[in-house]
C-alpha cells in the first residue's frame, strides 16, 4: 500500500484511518461505511481519507493488507524439516493470533470479507499467495494443491472456532495444548499417504 501525504504525520494519520475503517467495515459492512464516518472516528478531516486512499476502494485495499510479518511467519515455518513442519505451521498461526495487534487486523479482514465480495476475492488471493503456495512448497507435485487445501481446512477451522466465534474448549485451551492437539493432523496432511 502506498500512502500519499506529508511524511511527518502521514503514517500516524493513515494508520488511524485504516484502524477506524477496519472497525467499521467489520462491524457495519463495506456498503454501510462512509468515508466521512471513518474520518470522524479517526479524528481527521474527511478530505484526508480521500487524499491518502483516493477512494473507498483504495481504503478497502489498505484494510485488507495482512499484518506485518504474516507472510514471513508462514514462510519461516515452511523452512522447518518436513517431519517438524506441521507443528511449525500451527505455532506460527497461533503466534499471529495471540498477538493482539495482529489478531485485530486478521479478525477485521475475515469479518470484512464475509460481507463484501471484493474483500472476499482479495482474501482468497492473499490466502493463496501467502499460505497455500508456501505450505505446498516442496510437497509432491501431484498432491501439492490437495495437501495444502487439507491443511487450510484445519487452520481456518481452528482460527474460526478459537478466535472469531470463540466456541467450545478450543477457545480457552493454552496455545501449547492446541499445538499438541492440532499439529499431528497437519503433519498427517503433509506426509501421510492420501486415500
Low-confidence stretches: 1-7
Q: Can you count the beta strands?
A: 0
* Total of helices: 10
Structural shape: elongated
Number of domains: 2
Give helix and strand order, one letter per element, not per position. Answer: HHHHHHHHHH
Output mean pLDDT: 92
How would you explain this protein's 3D organization?
This protein has 195 residues and is mainly alpha-helical. It folds into 2 domains: 57 residues, Arc Repressor Mutant, subunit A; 122 residues, Orthogonal Bundle (Tetracycline Repressor, domain 2), CATH 1.10.357. The chain is built from 10 helices and no strands. The N terminus is likely disordered.
Short description:
By secondary structure, the chain is an all-alpha fold. It has helices spanning 7-28, 35-42, 46-53, 56-63, 70-78, 85-98, 100-115, 117-136, 144-164, 175-191.
Q: Topology, pairings included?
A:
Elements lengths: L6 H22 L6 H8 L3 H8 L2 H8 L6 H9 L6 H14 L1 H16 L1 H20 L7 H21 L10 H17 L4
Helix pairs in contact: 1-2, 1-4, 1-7, 2-3, 5-6, 5-8, 6-10, 7-8, 8-9, 9-10
Question: Which short descriptors sum up this protein?
Answer:
single chain; 195 residues; Arc Repressor Mutant, subunit A; Tetracycline Repressor, domain 2; 2 domains
Amino acid at each position: 500500500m502506498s500512502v500519499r501525504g506529508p511524511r511527518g504525520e502521514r503514517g500516524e494519520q493513515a494508520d488511524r484511518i485504516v484502524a477506524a475503517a477496519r472497525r467499521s467495515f467489520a462491524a457495519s459492512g463495506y456498503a454501510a461505511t462512509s468515508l466521512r464516518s471513518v474520518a470522524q472516528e479517526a479524528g481527521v478531516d474527511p478530505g484526508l481519507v480521500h487524499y491518502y486512499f483516493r477512494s473507498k476502494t483504495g481504503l478497502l485495499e489498505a484494510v485488507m493488507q495482512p499484518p506485518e510479518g504474516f507472510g514471513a511467519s508462514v514462510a519461516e515455518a515452511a523452512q522447518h524439516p518436513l517431519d517438524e513442519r506441521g507443528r511449525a505451521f500451527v505455532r506460527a498461526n497461533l503466534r499471529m493470533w495471540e498477538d493482539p495487534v495482529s489478531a485485530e487486523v486478521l479478525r477485521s479482514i475475515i469479518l470484512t470479507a464475509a460481507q463484501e465480495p471484493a474483500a472476499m476475492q482479495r482474501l482468497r488471493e492473499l490466502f493463496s499467495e501467502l499460505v497455500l503456495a508456501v505450505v505446498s512448497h516442496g510437497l509432491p507435485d501431484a498432491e501439492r494443491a490437495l495437501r495444502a487445501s487439507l491443511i487450510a481446512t484445519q487452520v481456518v477451522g481452528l482460527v474460526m472456532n478459537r478466535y472469531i466465534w470463540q466456541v467450545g474448549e478450543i477457545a480457552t485451551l493454552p496455545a501449547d495444548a492446541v499445538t499438541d492437539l492440532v499439529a499431528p493432523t497437519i503433519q498427517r496432511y503433509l506426509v501421510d499417504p492420501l486415500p
